[in-house]
């Protein structure tokens, strides 16, 4: 804790001089567990700097809509926004974000994992700092896997996962063999099914920006998903996202859950999870085509251009995404609960190396390649998204069609036909075709 104490001591001495210039920062963030924890620790930031913080905490789909509307209309509602790898390079290119190229030497931006720093940069300049980084992986009940007479490989196939899911399902006891996202939204169920489709050989666009939903690969993906979830998933899975599946897993109602690596600390926390001592981890599944179904993402903090509180906003970003913040969480909550996936030094820290999910998280992050995410060549960068401005709107509509198929409101074939038509129409209107 020496670094944290040194920083606190240095800032505390200057507090009397700076408190007269104290700001009130408004921060928009997502209602995920790590962000809730950050809010509870904000008094530490206020003590150090004199700045106060007002939080606007939103469900993931609502957050994306609110911050996108605010940044594009120059609404000025927020001094700091929680955004990700999709928005950051696009908004940075447009001049909508404050560059973060002048953070202090103590902050050590070079310690940020290259995959995270690269994904949050445009033309070599970082425009958002990762609060935590993630890929996706399998979290599974070791006791239920053993009861089913199966052994989870470190790098399983989708056929193994489907067989295990059906074997672990126990409807009489409300145990679902597998819990996966079906909720509409490009970053909710849309992110999951896109990452999954990569391993089936599918892609959003061919090299001429033609939509590819009329292909066998997309049909195979959606039919496999729907059949597996109907047989082994929870009722109403079409409306389940990250938080809904987290709750189900913690209650002991999921045999497997494939989702963000950041969830590992929550499912293994005995204060919140009834199965904390029965969780194992493996890489996201593949189909033997050379591409796994894991994504790459960071929830990051960025400053909208035009804010009148830029200096204070940078102070907050340094506080919330620093090594000293990681140490603060470790001191109060334990090393298993620190924000993962953002800094190289965390994975070199001997106190973190023995955390059960640490190595699998890092391996998952390092295995995701946003420049080569599909089996056949594609014209876009991104694993669970295509990094073009039009993607969010198109993918939200596509995910709504998929969720309708999951809910039995239309067939898979109908959903794919609608996805094909609306995607091509939007791309033609945008001048890609």
The number of helical elements comes to: 19
Helix content: 40-55%
Radius of gyration: 22 Å
Integer average pLDDT: 94
- The CATH first-level class of the largest domain comes to Alpha Beta
Q: Which structural class is indicated by helix and strand composition?
A: alpha/beta
Secondary-structure element order, N to C:
HHEHHEHEHHEEEEHHEHHHEHEEHHHHHH
In whole angstroms, the N-to-C terminal distance is 56 Å
The CATH architecture of the largest domain can be named as 3-Layer(aba) Sandwich
CATH topology of the largest domain: D-Maltodextrin-Binding Protein, domain 2
Question: What would your notes on this structure say?
Answer:
The chain has 433 residues and is of the alpha/beta class. The chain folds into two domains: 190 residues, D-Maltodextrin-Binding Protein, domain 2, CATH 3.40.190; 219 residues, D-Maltodextrin-Binding Protein, domain 2 (3-Layer(aba) Sandwich), CATH 3.40.190.10. It has 19 helices and eleven strands. The strands form three sheets. A five-stranded mixed sheet has the order 2-1-3-11-6. It has a four-stranded mixed sheet with strand order 8-9-7-10. β4 and β5 form a beta hairpin. α18 runs antiparallel to α19.
